Amino acid sequence: MIGQHLQFRGLFLKYFLVLFLAVVIPLAANGLSEAWFGYRDQRTRLEQLLGVEARSAGAKIQGFLDGITNQLGWLVQLPWTGEPDERRQIDALRLLRQVPAVASLTLLDGNGRERLYVSRIGLNRTESRMDRSAEVAVAGARMNRLWYGKVGYYRDSEPYMTIALTGNRPSVGVVVAEVNLKLIWDVVAAIKIGRTGHAFVLDGPGRLVAHPDINLVLRGADEATLAPFQRIREEIRRAPADVATGRDAGGIAVAAAATPVAGPDWTVVVEQPLSEAFGPIYAALWRTFGLLLAGGAFACLLAFILARRMTEPIRLLEDGTERIGAGQFGHRIEIRTGDELERLADSFNAMAAELAVSQERQERIAKLKRFLAPQVAELVDRTGDDDVLEGRRTEVVAVFCDLRGFTPFSARAAPEEVMSVLSEYYDALGRIITRYEATLTSFSGDGLMVLVNAPVPVAEPALQAVDMAVEMQLSVQTLIAGWRRRGYRIGFGVGLALGPATVGRIGYESRFDYTAIGSVVNLAARLCASAADREILADGAVARAVDGKRAVNPMGMRPIKGYDEELLVYRVAFADQPDAA
């Protein structure tokens, strides 16, 4: 046994030592050194870039706040008198029009009494003369001239901040403004770092003030939402350099830098995915991969030189592998050298036999899986009987379903959004159809046709079809809730009917489909077309078959397109999901 093991190692060592010493070591050393030095250079450039972008973003946020305070400064230029000042009210209303971020203004005289209050959402007040001198905003403005309050959340969603400003003389009073920070989104959204990098703003306690994704800001002080942003800020503070690495809210590895915003104690953070930041390094790795390919070609040349000493066995192996590669799995390679080559020929012969069996089985299963559930296809393959696919007359439940409002949605939405919705839709329904061992016969756009009880019969087809339809509705309604949060107005309806139909495979030699033909198919399609969002409509045959087992409620006689008389239509009851609107 030991001698045989050493014999098998001989040919392997010849190839391994030549290829390893001639190709692998030099290329690997070159690739590693290039990647290391490239990483250090790119890291330095990244720190410089993010530092500049952070300072630039901070300047833009500071400019946004300065623009508001400069406008407020015009309201504290002149001293107050004892009489009402209509001019100040006009100036305040004009400021609300010019500065959309300001939600309300309060003007106090030199004694800290309210003389004017204007608001976008509340009632205006004039000359209320309430004493507000003890308020924190007024005291802060008198002490520092310009005072920024803490960020609060209106109805736990939209961020607001109070800004108070006093004039150069006590007699001109104080102006207090409530600022809607949601409008900083326009400033933050315009900040781009590379192709996918962005900026966001945190206040002192670590709450999100601004982010390109406004939905994250509108979640208010939700700890789960804020945790990733607070974590990346702490990483930057602890980092010895100006740039730190971490993971953003989506779990993507990023490089980030930060800069403070004077006054409100904010921090502007800019981040860029590491996959983009180190793109040049990846390019270098691709170059190294190209060198490895070239080295592989060189290794093939060396292998050819060694193989010349074993001409006949190698020729037989080459001819045999070509035949096997061409699909001639019945071919066998005959080599009797007693060494690794003979063992290799035996392995090829065994592989050819296994490939022949595997190819036949895969082709059979692939053909069946085009229109059968995977478990049904496996069953037909194991039994070796595909007579169930031949044309016959049987009772089936035809199930049709499609999305409501999909046509106008697809006309308005971008192609990527349409394909994303369809992908989620088909993925959810496909799993359900497979689990219930139903047969998907066709789908077009957002519509599907499914058969139950064909080609493989089930014990209670109507009951199984109703349960499948209910699970389809529940699953798709969960998707619809998410789609509606993204602004897509889409619904989902299902129709099913029970009755005899002609089922079987149709087509031509290179393309077959399994389908059903009969009035039950047309009726199910018409019921589906009549079903509104969240509805499962069934005919009388289905209702009678599941009576007492599932809740099915009559909806009265309805005219059905293609039928001379009105038909009694039933609605399948199921637990409603929360409204996603």
First-residue to last-residue Cα separation: 74 Å
Q: Report mean pLDDT, rounded to a whole number.
A: 81
What's the story with the biggest beta sheet?
8 strands, mixed
- CATH class bucket of the largest domain: Alpha Beta
Helix content: 40-55%
Content-based structural category? alpha+beta
What is the name of the CATH superfamily of the largest domain? Answer: Nucleotide cyclase, GGDEF domain
Number of strands: 20
Share of β-strand residues: 15-25%
Silhouette: flat
Low-confidence stretches: 1-9, 577-581
Count of distinct structural domains:
3
CATH architecture of the largest domain: 2-Layer Sandwich
What is the gyration radius calculated from CA atoms? 37 Å
Q: For this entry, what is the oligomeric state of its chains?
A: single chain
Please name the CATH topology of the largest domain: Alpha-Beta Plaits
The helix tally amounts to 16
SSE arrangement:
Elements: H1 2-73, H2 86-98, E1 102-108, E2 114-119, E3 125-126, H3 136-144, E4 146-148, E5 152-154, E6 158-166, E7 174-180, H4 184-189, E8 198-202, E9 208-210, H5 214-218, H6 223-238, E10 244-247, E11 253-261, E12 266-273, H7 274-277, H8 279-307, H9 311-325, H10 340-369, H11 374-383, E13 392-404, H12 406-412, H13 415-435, E14 439-444, E15 447-452, H14 461-485, E16 491-508, E17 511-517, H15 519-530, E18 535-538, H16 540-545, E19 552-558, E20 567-572
Parallel strand pairs: 16-18
Antiparallel strand pairs: 1-2, 1-7, 2-3, 4-6, 5-6, 6-7, 8-9, 8-12, 10-11, 11-12, 13-15, 13-16, 14-15, 16-17, 18-20, 19-20
Helix pairs in contact: 1-8, 9-10, 10-11, 13-14
